[in-house]
Amino acid sequence: MFNKLKLQLSRSIKSRKLNVFGLFFLLSFCFWALTKLSKSYTETIVFEITYKNVPEQHHVDIDSSKKIKVGVKAYGFNLLKYSFFKPTFQIDFKSDVSPKNKTYIWNSKQNLAKINAKFKNSVDVISIQPDTLRFPYQSLAVKKVPVRTNLSIGYATGYDMSSKIKVVPDSVRIIGSKKIIAKIEEVTTKRMELKNINSDIDKSLQIEMTEPLKQLKISTRNVTIKGHVEKFTEGTFNVPVTIINLPADININYFPKTIPVAYNVSLNNYKLVKASDFRIECNFKDIANTEKSFLIPKLVKVPKTVKSARLKQHKVEFILMQ
């Protein structure tokens, strides 16, 4: 391709088709531009302002039209780029401003090094306007409240959640009027229904923006719910009944001596569950000074690996022995 272009250019020169006037004009313009750009100039460069780390606990009156005008002296080559690109200057509220009388104050003298850093060494800063920027603010209330999910989960047959569902984040910060914030104890997600679930849950939920919340700032409007879903099965053990708080001078006989306990557990943990992991108690104090002839059994110990458990019998008959 380059050989072809070179051949066509050679033919044009030989046939005098090349515009000699245009070539000389271009060379003259380049010489003029080089001469101009090699001179020293004094110019004013206007910086658009951006803001960083604006305090959440304050409502800061930020005027987006504010700009910083920097007078500089430099060679044209060093100023050329500012004719094509709009420069920006960032004000960091953590390091660049000072609070005084409900106002954040930015001072050009205190931030001179940061302004100089925007230029090369060959550019001299000779003036900064304005020399001070003021940002009035009002204090706001900040409160951390929990997130409650409005979630309905329907599992496929034989499946269930192996642990409590996790909400990330589990709380949010709300910022605004003290009067409004005082009435808010929690935020709720929008309603979501999940059906026929047979795999892990990882979903994004939006916070329900009620009218009070719309008047406040909120740290996030979305949360993620995560849950580990497994195949579950049911098991049964006969667990001994233990009588507690039986006076030393009283002897009883009771029936049944064991009660079946049905429990739900994931397939992965099924073989880890033992009958000794459960405990059933009957408290004799519950029927003291009554004429009842039965005790109410309670399941007081269940292994952590078990999702749920229930007794298959709810009475223990007894008789007093002489």
Oligomer: single chain
Radius of gyration (Å): 40 Å
The averaged pLDDT comes out at 84
Largest sheet: 6 strands, mixed
CATH class of the largest domain, anyone?
Mainly Beta
Shape: elongated
How many domain regions? 3
CATH topology of the largest domain: RNA Polymerase Alpha Subunit, Chain A, domain 2
Helix content: 10-25%
Distance from N terminus to C terminus (CA atoms, Å) equals 117 Å
Beta-strand content estimate: over 45%
| Helix-strand category | mainly beta
The count of helical stretches stands at 6
Total count of strands: 26
Low-confidence stretches: 1-6, 21-25, 29-33
CATH architecture of the largest domain: Beta Complex
InterPro entries: c-di-AMP_regulator (IPR053154)
Protein name: YbbR-like domain-containing protein
Give the secondary structure arrangement, pairings included.
Elements: H1 2-14, H2 20-37, E1 40-52, E2 58-60, E3 67-75, H3 76-79, E4 88-92, E5 97-99, E6 103-107, H4 112-116, E7 124-129, E8 132-139, E9 141-148, E10 151-155, E11 159-161, E12 166-168, E13 171-176, H5 178-181, E14 187-188, E15 192-197, E16 201-206, H6 211-214, E17 217-218, E18 222-227, E19 229-244, E20 251-255, E21 258-266, E22 279-283, E23 294-295, E24 298-301, E25 306-311, E26 316-321
Parallel strand pairs: 1-4, 9-14, 10-15, 19-22
Antiparallel strand pairs: 1-3, 2-8, 3-7, 5-6, 6-8, 9-13, 11-19, 12-18, 13-17, 16-18, 19-21, 20-26, 21-25, 22-24, 23-26
